[in-house]
Amino acid sequence: MEHFYNIYNASAGSGKTFNLVKEYLKILLTDEQVDSYKKILSITFTNKAVNEMKSRIIENLNQLTKINLKEKSSPLLDSIKKETGLTNQEIQLKSISILKSILINYASFNISTIDKFTQKIIRNFAYEIKIPVNYEVEIKTKDLLEESTAKLISKAGSDNRLTKALINFSFEKSANDKSWDIEYDLNNISKLLLNENHFEQISAIENKNLEDFEKLKKQIDDNKIKIESEIINEATNCLNFIYSKGLEDSDFLSQALPKHLKKVKSKNFNALYTNQLEANIQKGYLYKKTLSEDKKSILDSIKEELYIVFSSLKKKIFKFKFYENIQSNNRPLSILKHINSELEIIKKEKNIILISEFNKIVNNQIKNQPALFVYEKIGVKYKHFFIDEFQDTSKLQWTNLIPLIENSLSSENSSLSISGDIKQAIYRWRGGEPEQLLKLCNNNTEFLTKSKVINLETNYRSKNEIIKFNNSLFAHISQFVFTSEIHKDIYKNCQQDYNNNLGGYVGINILNDLDSIAEKENAYNLKIQKIVEASLKNGFELRDICILVRTNDQGVKISDFLNKKDIDIISSETLLISKSEEVEFIIAILKFCSQPNLVNSKLDIINYLHRTNNLKKSKHSFIKGLIKKNKKEFFKELHKLNLYFDYNILTKSSLYEAIEYIIYAFKLSKKSNNYIQFFLDFTFDYSNKNFANTQDFINHYESKKDTLSIVAPEESDAVKIMTIHKSKGLEFPIVIYAYADIDVYKEKDAKEWYPVSKDEFNGFNNLLLNFNKDFEFFGDIGNLIYKTHQMNLELDNINLLYVALTRAQNELHIICSNSCNKKGEENLKKYSGMFINYLKKNDLWNANIETFEFGQKIKKDISTKKLNTSIIDEFIINPKEVHDINIDAKSAKIWGTSLEEATNNGNLLHEIMSKIKSKQDLERVLKDFYENGTINTILKEKYRQLIIEILDHEKLSHYYNPDLKSYNEKDIILKNSDPIRADRIVFNSDKEICVIDYKTGKLKKEDYDQINSYELVLSNMGYTVKDKIIINTANRLEVIKF
Question: Concatenated DSSP letters for 547-610?
């Protein structure tokens, strides 16, 4: 029987995870071994998807262990029984064993992102790759690239060739009326180093040096001069030819051809081919009907020659533009190698590998290695593979997996399950290649095993009105938006089946008369506010609503507006830790303590303290009272607010401890605070990777703070604002898609590689060009690249629209602006134009109507309302200043149940004093307590000061004389009762003694009775108690001698 591997063609909300979990469980339940999960590799795209897959498998296994043989089965159980032939009892018993095994060997439960799997290979090949085993992975690459560029520019003057290249680049920019500052351009082109789409071409020019690029530039310059001369001569000759025939400019239709030739002759090659001139010449439309018959006859006789010249000029002009385009990237491309050199130095210094390099590193390492050797290196041979979100898998990622999968599929009892949806492929810009999924579906692959495509056709996510709308909309726009027949068919045939979720609502809101950006933003914001408020009236909660946008900037504008309207929101902007006033306060304290002359930092501290302490004093008076004080006076003044902060402690503590102390001293940890916890994690991570200098840390934080975000708390009742890309794989009861005005063909800084002949271009076989409309006329190759690029833009942007419109469960609200021109014609390149065209097709369009509705809004079923989660409101922090204790048997004895309790009861003071006979012992004892983790730097200093005060006290110093015999915490065994233990007994002579007791609370009668009982016992033993002393440290040192 022929063996197949499964491809799940999974449209949005079609139960993809259910099917993957079912196939996974089938393998576990039918294998003889209970640990067959160790031979399964499941790969997906995001950590969230990994966690969901793991949770679903564990939860379903747990349910299968509790099968009630008499009760009705679940859909999952029914499917497993039908497809495996197993009984309820067999499934139950096997599930119990499997679940136990997974929980014991959870690290072997191989469900991960493809990046984590790739990293696993890299770590196991570290020796062969010649990288340190303890390397760190860096995810955020933008800062590193900018640092590399900055370091390169700083070398100007030390390297003559590089300096010349940088100066020439700056001059070239100035000559083209652009800013002379080259840093932006270099930062921009440096991104190519880490973009998988460019790896192959970048590798091809790695061996090229500045001289090679300089020679290429000279060659291109010569070619430009030559072809420009030819163009001018040809245009001049053509004009002379026209005039030699007795023709004048006015004889031509709108004087178009003579104007065109004169523009060419003047070297103005811009916007020459945006009119109908070429079509008119081709058709022979050269003159007005009123022209004399003689001149008509002359023009008719030369029209073919004119068309030949026109075509020749066009070809040469685009050749000239081609050379110009090459030059625009030649200089920054020549410097790219040097940026990469700086990047490699930084990576080596920081012992890091960039996550964007993983696929390239693995590809270089394993492409020539047999699969069995790779399996041996990673310690396991996988028999079963699950690959989720395959449409976003890059070419290199798939290439790296092929040898392993091929090897496994060639053996018995192996399998491959792939899921994907080409309509949700929205990551081409970072290497995703959705065409790979099409090839697999069509069996255009290297595998001997054939694919079996399983179409998941039912949408279980959305209510039926939303499914109906999306089916109809995408089938309609597929007829005109795609130039590729393949892409057209994908959407033409994407109709999803309905589920049992009746109802649903779709609203298309088309805003009119938006003349300015400010008007547009205000109109969008007001419409969003209206939808949110209406949803709340219908029983929905803020947490049910998600606002989707294309860019972060759009999200920020909406976020700012809703905040002003007191509508709670969660967005990438609000989740930035720099938005936490507590975190910014901590940074201000660090800045002020390290640089006291920084007035801005001092002001930040003062403003925060005034805002958070409910002071009756006016803000102006509060600032005035503090702003001119020096550091010592400043913090002393804060004692009036019951804030006690010793800045000297920061210099004696590690960076992490210092920040914990700031949090504790300024009482920033009263309530649960995700921002502070994230900041502490960030600090800890930095401290582990770097020698933690405070100023360096501050600089590091300032450079990173715009990218540092906490994870949104699940229990938060707030409107979510996110980009469409981040929403992928998620669903929400209500979705508002704002700014639905994307132009399918509009993009920023697009580039394409153009293959050329090495012989003609100084040994280069690919050149980097800016992608624009001219590309279409850069020969047959350019025309093909242009068409492919445009087709990709069409698919990628319609996919983006599809993802946005398929996140909603109950209601979908679309907000866009009217894209019609004065004639009422919609712009079909824009989403908004597509919506209008759809409305016209359904005879619904009316320019005077703002909202077009499909289905009906309904009130939320209260039974579906989420229960409020119990939230721990206390922020638990272990500042070393108070209770960062390593608990062991000894410290448990000291502390009892908690540090605070122990401190209040005086356990720690008693324990320290029990080790001190004289002042000579103090430093040694404190050191011992510090090194065994019982106290930290702060407590160490605190107890040093207290104990010195005790030892030097005029009433006490005599009793800590090292020459006197003394006992600390010694049991006195009594004949008929429990032993007693005095804190300290000092012998003045053989029979004359002093008894000392330490107290740390308010003195009671029992305290005096206790020391009197010591006296009685010691007197009965024949000793004379000369002095009884109570040393109380409750508030201040108090010595009571009696």
Answer: EEESSHHHHHHHHHHHHHTT--EEETTTTBGGG-HHHHHHHHHHHHHH-TT-HHHHHHHHHHHH
